[in-house]
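Milestone M4 deliverable, item 7.
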Amino acid sequence: MSSENQALPTIRVQNLSKLYYLHSHQGSLRDTLSYRLKNWRRKGGATEKKTLWALKDVSFEVNKGEALGILGPNGAGKTTILKLLSRVTFPTSGTIEVNGRLGALLELGAGFHPELTGRENTYLYGSILGMSRQQISQKFDDIVAFSGLERFIDMPVKRYSSGMYVRLGFSVAAHTDPEVLLVDEVLAVGDAEFRQKCIQRIKSLQEQGVSIIFISHNLFQMRAVCDRGIFLNQGQIQAQGTIDEAIAAYEQWLRQGNRILDSKKPYEFISGQGGTDLQLLGIEVCNLDGQPSEVLDYSDGADIRLHYYAQRDFPQVNYVVRIVRSDGLVCAMLRSSSLGLPSCSLQGQGYISIRLNQLQLGDGDYLIEARLRDSEDAVTLAKGSSAAFRVCGPRLAGDRESGVFIPNIAGVSVVNQLQPAADHASTQGGHSIEL
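Output delivered:
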């Protein structure tokens, strides 16, 4: 009998579907009642209903000690699955079987009271999660040590930062000794060191036989934690298999739908508070030989060029460049004022060249976002988003699962290709800052 129970999946989901009714009008209670009454009369007593299948015929199993990653775009139905598993809501059809004590890291600190201290909220939140007072007392020191909030534990949580709030919430939830753990995007906040502690805690629970369902837009975290994966879109399973196979299917879907920006698309220009006097014409990624390149290697350097047009002289312009992975994770932030780089003098038409040494980005697709800002780095004069490129390199794991890196800047230069109309006698010039 015990061997049969041992062989049972910890989670079994069969033909799971969830239907929601959508209302086309939202507003005050009076406006809503008035709208529905008018609609009822217009339809001859029948009310108009719009429906959405958040999930449709989803089936999967998770065995003891296994970690399943569920990935997909926003609105795919990922969080709906976790809400159904944790009985926050109930399915329209299908069956759910969970064999074991359930723990959910869905909305950390949802039961915190702002006027209570961290200590008092630890007991309150722990009881909401099903722990007895004795259990909380036995684990209290471990909870506080994990959170790193020893100095602040007797302070009202209304004075906590959002990061401190999440630290305490995760620490309590992660010490409930679950047999099944549901994790939904809770690692998207907090500092990198604490996120790494969370990943290690989750993997430790998995080694103890805890079954895990993990949702995240961070594909590196997915690879670090999960054994298998499901690619979900519009409430239906598009692919499932190993975590690498699921991620590959998701990335292929992103590329086929042009959801990763194409470097061949026209540059997107967005006027900032500087109006049209300063325009960011485009963003270009080149290799260190100055040749435009859509594919770079992990060990390659890059020359990021911010093409501009200035209708008047801008003697002091700062810049901000973000390198963003295809899943939305910001992997690097180059802010000239923060890095101690001199501001740029811009006139006419040209480009700012930012040369980076080894990229050291993990395998995947990336894009560039940039802003040109005033001398105080307070007002955005122009901004744009373009220049997609791909990095071919290792799939990072462990302490590099986030893919974040500190840029190694080799030099910054400004190349003037065309002077303003009032000063067109000189056709080209430039100045550079070598680091």
